[in-house]
Amino acid sequence: MDSNEQVLSARRSFTRMARFFHQLLREKLTCGPLTIQQFYTLESLEGGPRPMNALAAQVGLHQSTLTRIVDRLERDGLVARRGNPKEKRRVEVVLTEEGRTLYRSLDRECKNVASEMLKVVPEDARQACVDAMDLLSRSMDPDSERFRALLKSCCGDRKGEGKR
Questions:
Q1: Cβ contacts of residue 74 below 8 Å, gap of 6+?
Q2: Count of domains in the chain?
Q3: pLDDT of 95 above 80
Q4: Is 60 part of a structural domain of the chain?
Q5: Amino acid 156: pLDDT
Q6: Per-residue pLDDT tens for 122-142?
Q7: CATH code where residue 106 lies
Q8: Is the residue at 88 inside a domain?
Q9: Beta strands in the chain (DSSP E)
Q10: Range of the structural domain that residue 105 is part of
C-alpha cells in the first residue's frame, strides 16, 4: 500500500473508530445522568483540578460550550470552581467527591464497552492494536505543540473560527 492509500485508509479508520466508539459511549451514558461531553469533562478532571482554558483544550470544546457544561455539573454537585492559591485571578474546576464517585462508576461501564470491542480483535493481535491506539492517542495530546499546530492549521482558512 503506497503512502496515499495509507493516509486514506487511516483517515477512514479514524473517522469510523471515533464515530462508532462515541456512539457506543453515548448510548451507554444515555441510561445515566450525564451527556458524553459531561462525562469527558469529569474524565479530564479525574487527573486533578484544571483551569477552564486547559480543561476546554483537554475535552476538545470551545470554552463557552465548556462553561455551560461546567455550570450544569456544578449545579448537580459534581464539580466545584475554586480559586488557585498560586494565582488569585485563576479559577480552577475540581471534581467533588460525588463527581468522582459517579465518574468511576461510569468509567467501569465504559471499560466494559472497550473490553467487548477488543474481543473482536484476534487475541494475538490485541496488544499490537492497543499499542498502536495508545501511540496515536498520545500524538493527539492537546498540550503538545505539534497537535496545537495541527489544530490551528485545520481552522486557518476560516476567518475568526477555530480559536480555543
A1: 80, 81
A2: 1
A3: yes
A4: yes
A5: 59
A6: 999 999 999 998 988 888 877
A7: 1.10.10.10
A8: yes
A9: 50-51, 79-83, 91-95
A10: 13-120
